[in-house]
Amino acid sequence: MKVVKRDGSTEVFMPEKVVVSAVKSGAPYETARDIASSLSKRSESTMKSTEIRSYVISELRSRKAASAADAWETYDQKHKKR
């Protein structure tokens, strides 16, 4: 799968980026790995980075890791001006 970034450029989807970001936000490692794995198995050939972000946050909340989802959103708002 390819990721379309906010600036329009594309890169190959790297599940480890999702894992690292989720763990840094406070998600358990296994939860982060499961979410990244589920993204890897999706059938889309491309996804926007914002769609990936929304998916991960939604999955964190549904997997009882709401505090990690909150931390991820807070980081984005503070550092990425979203």
Give your account of this protein's structure.
The protein is mainly alpha-helical and 82 residues long. It has one domain. The chain has four helices and three strands. The chain has a three-stranded mixed β-sheet. A hairpin with a 5-residue loop joins strand 1 and strand 2. Helix 1 runs antiparallel to helix 2 and helix 3 runs antiparallel to helix 4. The longest helix is centred in the last third of the chain and has 14 residues. It starts with a strand and ends with a helix. The mean pLDDT is 90.
> How many discrete domains?
1
Distance between the termini: 24 Å
Encode the helix/strand succession as letters. Answer: EEHHEHH
Shape: globular
Q: What would the average pLDDT be, to the nearest integer?
A: 90
Q: Main sheet: which strands, in order across? A: 2-1-3
Instruction: Please describe the biggest sheet, giving its number of strands, its sense, and whether it closes into a barrel.
Output: 3 strands, mixed
Question: Helical amount among residues, as a percent range?
Answer: 55-70%
Uncertain runs are: none
Beta-strand residue percentage = 5-15%
Descriptive labels:
single chain, 11% strand, 82 residues, 61% helix, three-stranded mixed beta sheet
